[in-house]
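Q: I'm building a small set of examples for a reading group on sequence design. Run inverse folding on the following structure and report the sequence directly after it, with nothing in between.
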């Protein structure tokens, strides 16, 4: 386990303290969870960016073209737009 001294603006710290109290967790747990959520979001973004770069629109179009032309299965229909 590592320690890191963190400088946080007073207003943000006060809000974080309030949120931690509402969630019934320690400030440490609140900050660790917040950091984990941010790291997860960044990793997810990187994953999808890498997947997009590997993608090939021509291959996708060919795949769609090979799909059968039929009505969707029950429950898979698009919802009707109100308007």
């Amino acid at each position: 386990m590592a320690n890191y001294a963190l400088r946080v603006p007073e207003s943000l710290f006060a809000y974080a303290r309030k949120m931690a109290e509402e969630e019934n967790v320690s400030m440490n747990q609140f900050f660790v969870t917040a950091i984990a959520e941010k790291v997860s979001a960044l990793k997810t973004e990187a994953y999808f960016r890498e997947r997009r770069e590997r993608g090939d629109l021509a291959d996708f179009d060919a795949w769609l073209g090979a799909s059968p032309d039929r009505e969707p299965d029950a429950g898979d229909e698009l919802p009707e737009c109100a308007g």
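The longest helix spans residues 27-54.
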